[in-house]
Amino acid sequence: MDMKIKAPYDLDVSCSKCSLLNKCMPAGLNSTELTRIDSLVSQRIRVKRGSDLQRFNNGQQSLNIIRTGYFKTVLSTNDGRDQVLGFHMSGDSIGLAGELSELHSCRVTALEDSTVCIVPFAHVEAIANSVNGLHSHIRHLFSLEINRENSVMLFLGSMNSQERVATFLLKLSSSHEERGFSPIDLNLKMSRYDIASYLGLKHETVSRTLARFIKSKLINLNLRELKIINLVALNSLAVDKNN
Amino acid sequence: MDMKIKAPYDLDVSCSKCSLLNKCMPAGLNSTELTRIDSLVSQRIRVKRGSDLQRFNNGQQSLNIIRTGYFKTVLSTNDGRDQVLGFHMSGDSIGLAGELSELHSCRVTALEDSTVCIVPFAHVEAIANSVNGLHSHIRHLFSLEINRENSVMLFLGSMNSQERVATFLLKLSSSHEERGFSPIDLNLKMSRYDIASYLGLKHETVSRTLARFIKSKLINLNLRELKIINLVALNSLAVDKNN
DNA sequence: CGTGGTTTTGATCATAATCAACGTCTGTGG
DNA sequence: CCACAGACGTTGATTATGATCAAAACCACG
To answer: Which domain holds residue B18?
Structure first.
């Protein structure tokens, strides 16, 4: 493998020095707690674009946190139907429903070359009593995921195509902004098919809706380079700004 | 209040003697662990039909487990739109996304007179080290919820009305069966409007789809009394039997 | 009783799906 | 480095599905 040659990111980073620390771990840790935190990650792995994150590392349940890159989670049915459940980027936890996922075959696929930190829950429990708020932070991560899915159900259940696409773009914009990227210039990592599946639409409909947005001068779009021109108008198309 | 007069169910039950024990708590507890378990529930409360479960008991985060009764969870948007996220019955945990729900205003409404056990997470953490598998059980509860929502996204995102209603009935049937009720004779606790919102349809469409099922001799229906006549055929309409 | 919410059914309409064709990228292998 | 195959993306024409509008019957509860 080309692990040493091409390595675009250093995998030998400790949590206490990681820029994502405040997103992964509880806030306000003291120095003693910080050193304990460094024992949480059992390994950091690379996932190439197009390949799936392999969970169930030697049978132990673990939290997977994206260090760099971009993923989609996909639920596949017996009869070959796929449903994209979400898109995830740096700092996001993925596979929280992993325990049962062998039945449901929920895949986690990298949309670009990525790196992931593996935190076995056994490690969490080992230090939880000496790190203030660690347990409640883990619960918070689960909570975030459930809330995220709730808002997906909202647009799947009750929005028209225009509202869905507008909502999607706005969410993308704010998650980019949260990570210090431009909320205006978005580089879409996912295909129109992925977006369509996520939004419960067909890819032609996504394409047409984006075309309408271009015509109305809400966005500019060149393949996967998207620029939001009129954020206010886009916001007024999306139904609920808090979800 | 009529707490003492009408009380249909005894609220003074300890977990160790509760019939839902195996659903709420990890399996295979020894007698020492069982006695510890009894300290978990801080209170058991009644919720009248039509009223909402009040969470955030004096600010502490807690797990809410349905002892008896029936609930729906509903996400309300700023602009007055409602989305039913799920239906829940005895043994189910609700409000796992509670931490953030003040923002998202996710209501938990009783569809019949119900009772709920409140388990503060602080109590869980206090005894977790002396009860084998308690932490991983709590994670399992969150996992179950995420998996449940995943399968909702599946039908919201990729099924037609017939598949949605068939899937809904089958899920209802199996959750009744799990609890020792007839999987054939179902007493619907929710309105057509609730079902429609849950399935991402309009209530007229639900009504019509059920009418089609009656005509095809898949079910019998009288208001909210539903009898499944042809489970096999219903199964073949539902897309994915495992989700 | 009677009022308001629920459920059903009918007629019509609108939206997004489907079918189809074509253009365009991208990554691979020669 | 180019050619090519296959995936991706766009646009048009038509259709189908479920939404919408409307009305009536029914039940439930005060």
So the answer is: 8-150
* DSSP 8-state assignment for residue A16: G
Give strand letter and number of the nucleotide nearest A204 (CA to C1'). Answer: D10
CA distance A73 to A70: 10
A229 plus A115 within the same structural domain? no
Q: For residue B203, give the nucleotide whose C1' atom is nearest its CA.
A: C7
Concatenate the DSSP letters of all residues of A69-82 into one string.
EEEEEEEE-TTS-E
- Most B CBs within 10 Å, among A72, A103, A142, A159, to test the B interface: A142
| Assigned domain for B130 exists | yes
A39: in domain: yes
> Which residues of chain A have a pLDDT value below 50?
1-8, 241, 243
Count of CB pairs separated by less than 8 Å, A with B: 151
3-state secondary structure of B74: strand
Round the average pLDDT of chain A to a whole number and report it.
Answer: 90
- Please check whether residue B210 lies inside any domain of the structure: yes
Mutate which of A73, A78, A83 to test chain B, going by most B C-beta atoms within 10 A?
A83
Q: Which amino acid is at A2?
A: D
Number of H helices, E strands in chain A: 10, 8
Contact A97, A56 (CB under 8 A): no
Within this chain, do residues B174 and B144 fall inside the same structural domain, yes or no? Answer: no
Q: Are residues A61 and A97 in the same domain?
A: yes
Convert the pLDDT of each residue in B120-176 to its tens digit. 999 999 999 999 999 999 999 999 999 999 999 999 999 999 999 999 999 999 999
Is there a contact between B243 and A77 if contact means CB atoms under 8 Å apart?
yes
Structural domain ending residue among the three candidates B124, B150, B176: B150
- Ramachandran category for residue A226: left, alpha or beta (phi over 0 → left; psi -120 to 50 → alpha): beta
Return the CATH number at B104. Answer: 2.60.120.10
Q: From the list B75, B79, B142, which residue is nearest A150 (CB)?
A: B75
